[in-house]
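Bumping with the actual sequence this time:
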Amino acid sequence: MPDMTSASSGTVLAFDFGKRRIGVAIGEHELRMAHPLTTIDQSMTRPRFEKIAELIEAWQPVLLVVGLSVHADGTEHEITRLCRRFARRLEGRFRIPVALADERYTTVIARSVLEEVGVTGKKQRPMLDQIAAQHILQTYFDLSHAAS
């Protein structure tokens, strides 16, 4: 997997991986701004990767960023392993570099953002994961810019 400064221009897609849903965000490396894109609400592998293939075809990203789920203290758990596997599959299937980014608290932040604009309860579900992906990507941009 590339380091955080491997791409300097072009479209970037980010993923908030979950067993049931995958949030997707998009941004331009040069602008360093992330935006929520969509949520893939599917637990089966084949339909998930078909949707991702459609997004990659449409947006032609130069880099993919996958949120790496870890405990608050940084230790890994079952979902961490699944996130790493998902990242390897993306890189292998689409031949696009993949970076891993810390995703701690992104769902909490996304929930808070939605509550601030009056979206609560079950109404959050369709947007929550893509906003979490947006925060993953924005953090990636912020950290990669700070490192350069």
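The tokens above came from a reply further down the thread. Residues 125-147 form the longest helix (23 residues).
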